[in-house]
């Protein structure tokens, strides 16, 4: 595939494994074993069975009629919000817990922003009876309290990250520190297509089920497996990479990645990495990240805890640089309004992350008959407080 | 031959290196601290250039980095401060930090500037061997800056041999696979690990770092290796001692006794 990773773990100029020596054995073990393990028929059978009977896949591809009427195109929603635990994050968590089990790991760590990945990880750890520690920014713990409670109820220990911006970036740092201190028995389930190689590739593969199913479902519903547009929100970028994966080489499909502009791209309170970022190294890979001229990471801002990340995955950085995908951004207000619109037109309350993708429909012009797929990556239950405060319900 | 090689030629045991973060606890005391450490008997120094997201560091060094950044420390300012270093300090100087500030500065510009101000080596924990070989080795060589690699108890023999081949000053032996600031456990495991490395008869000296907080740990490290580096404990001392420049002499004496 044209946009795949090379043998050294690079997507064009991006990727690699910028990790301290303390993590080298873990990363090397993963690099050497993950292909063999995930290609093993017994692994595949267990993965497929869990996705079907535990997660509830395939997730539906729903033609949103009222939204389609509004925008003058056929708008299809890939319903990842209907997965067990309420988002796409469970696809990757299942893939990695089966991998960790086969690597003989006794302890799982994870980082989480909105809590969706934390909940997914706590869920699969409960399923497998494996100890689970989730790092979460102190601020995110406050704004995503229901997900903190879920994780605890599932048996996970939730550890607040109190440094820096006390959000996702810092939770990721803390998780990496934990891994450095516990290199032998612990597997780190990274929740997005970020981190040192092979994580970006591995997570993308686990999430590629989204576009694989979409192709099949579009063919059944429209007679053509290729949409004209595929849209998804991007923080680190795992649902977007899953949505884009099987369309990457079909150049007729326009790929649109929607980032969080926060209070506005130029407001100083934003997470629009592809606009504000420069090439650099963060959390183990060479990618695009928001940083000062001196290489210090700039703390991002978005109303959506899941998009509040200063970088994007290295494959996204590559797709951006070679212009295979278009990277755009949407403000907090635009996203919240789009969330309300989807609720009232289709009866679906989306996660604020996903609402960013829907908000971009307002800015597009379509030809009649265009087929548009939007990844509805998560449901909005966790964000009700934010919606309530914003709209004054 | 740079100052590090000269040092190891002249003295190959009980070498004491001290780490401190540039700009901590006071923005403009980088060279003064270095000078005081040399006078107190440190054999070489590691000066940390602060980074916002130091994943290999524990809370003490992370805090010192944040204080320095908040006070206005940048790589440009650090190089400016180090401009006068060689008029006051003669022992080898190593810069320690993370890949992103160096990459942003430009690796060639970084090495050129480091050489200009009399820096002898660089430790960048998140710059792995593969990336160094592929992207940066020739640049480091051009400016005669040593890149110092880390080795942990989990590093395989094959990889240690490769690191030994790529190194031209010393190998930074981590006392345990952990972030900075965890005290060295004086147990059989540590002896076995140090003895295993010693038996490999590497061409480069080995200096132990991470967890060296007092003279007992320093002595243990020196039993098997050429020396040791004190980091977190010294940063703690700087942060908790109002007149730290005066206290450095006593502090270093305490480590060596």
UniProtKB/TrEMBL annotation, chain A:
InterPro entries on file: Trp_synth_b_CS, Trp_synth_beta, Trp_synth_beta/beta-like, TrpB-like_PALP, TrpB-like_PALP_sf
Pathway the protein contributes to: Amino-acid biosynthesis; L-tryptophan biosynthesis; L-tryptophan from chorismate: step 5/5
PROSITE patterns according to UniProt: TRP_SYNTHASE_BETA
Stored SUPFAM superfamilies: Tryptophan synthase beta subunit-like PLP-dependent enzymes
Post-translational modification N6-(pyridoxal phosphate)lysine, affected residues: 89
Enzyme Commission number(s): 4.2.1.20
Cofactor(s) listed: pyridoxal 5'-phosphate
Keyword annotations of the record: Amino-acid biosynthesis, Aromatic amino acid biosynthesis, Lyase, Pyridoxal phosphate, Tryptophan biosynthesis
Catalytic reaction(s) noted: (1S,2R)-1-C-(indol-3-yl)glycerol 3-phosphate + L-serine = D-glyceraldehyde 3-phosphate + L-tryptophan + H2O
Keyword Amino-acid biosynthesis belongs to the record: yes
Ranges for domain Tryptophan synthase beta chain-like PALP: 56-378
A molecular-function term among this protein's GO annotations: tryptophan synthase activity
Family according to the record: Belongs to the TrpB family.
Function: The beta subunit is responsible for the synthesis of L-tryptophan from indole and L-serine.
NCBIfam families reported for this sequence: trpB
Subunit structure: Tetramer of two alpha and two beta chains.
Protein name: Tryptophan synthase beta chain
Encoding gene per record: trpB
UniProtKB/TrEMBL annotation, chain B:
Any one GO MF annotation of this record: tryptophan synthase activity
Keywords: Amino-acid biosynthesis, Aromatic amino acid biosynthesis, Lyase, Tryptophan biosynthesis
UniProt pathway annotation: Amino-acid biosynthesis; L-tryptophan biosynthesis; L-tryptophan from chorismate: step 5/5
Top-rank lineage group of the source organism: Bacteria
Keyword Amino-acid biosynthesis listed: yes
Gene3D superfamilies linked to this entry: Aldolase class I
EC number: 4.2.1.20
Catalysed reactions, as listed in the record: (1S,2R)-1-C-(indol-3-yl)glycerol 3-phosphate + L-serine = D-glyceraldehyde 3-phosphate + L-tryptophan + H2O
InterPro entries for the chain: Aldolase_TIM, RibuloseP-bd_barrel, Trp_synthase_alpha_AS, Trp_synthase_suA
Entry keyword Repressor: no
Active site, UniProt feature: 46 (proton acceptor), 57 (proton acceptor)
Subunit details: Tetramer of two alpha and two beta chains.
NCBIfam families: trpA
Function: The alpha subunit is responsible for the aldol cleavage of indoleglycerol phosphate to indole and glyceraldehyde 3-phosphate.
UniProt record similarity statement: Belongs to the TrpA family.
Record protein name field: Tryptophan synthase alpha chain
Organism: Mucilaginibacter jinjuensis
Designated gene of the protein: trpA
